From TrEMBL:
The keyword Hydrolase applies. Transmembrane segments: none annotated. Residues 23-96 form the NTP pyrophosphohydrolase MazG-like domain. One of its GO terms (biological process) is UTP catabolic process. Its EC number is 3.6.1.9. This is Nucleoside triphosphate hydrolase. The keyword Hydrolase applies. GO terms for molecular function: nucleoside triphosphate diphosphatase activity. It comes from Deinococcus koreensis. Keywords: Hydrolase. It is an enzyme of class 3 (hydrolase). Gene3D superfamilies: MazG-like.
Amino acid sequence: MQELLSVMRRLRGPGGCPWDQEQTHESLRPYLLEEAAEAVDAVSAPDRRELAGELGDVLLQVAFHSVIAEQEGTFGYADVEGAIVSKLIRRHPHVFGEVQVEGSAEVVANWQAIKAAEQGDRPRRPADRVPAALGALAREARTQKLAGLTGERAALARLLDTAPDSEAGVAAVLSAVVAWARSLDVDPEVTLRAHTQATLAALPGDPRS
């Protein structure tokens, strides 16, 4: 990681790259989203080396933001790494402490309890718990979970017959599809991404390429 940080400092420093020097936390937001999405796609690739490459692109974004913050004097990479290491140790008392657990369900429950205590048990608005940058399907799934909403195939079928041919009708059907997927413990965002990727792979190539 130190080598990557050194490269980024060189790119951002005197005599470096004009494009890299112009970037800000805000300007890099679309790249962070894109690289994370490409890493998700690479998980399904048959060649694991593709995943390694995409994870490198995600790591570049971490280094980029860290160096920008370092130059601003707000934080540095050591703060990023230190914060996540401390969090992992703090939220795994069954590994780094004396807490006993009987399975992953208890691990998740402990994690949530520790997280709430860290936040001083302050109530958070639902909007604060559902990042706006999530994909639309993932955001809907997270929102439904917070709201305690459930769904089933029969409800989806009924809605398909009655939904108006409008934006509101399409939105209602999409929401019902997400609820149906959740009832099957299927991640709608990941599943649709995999389906789209398979469709793209099956399309004929451009003869001009």
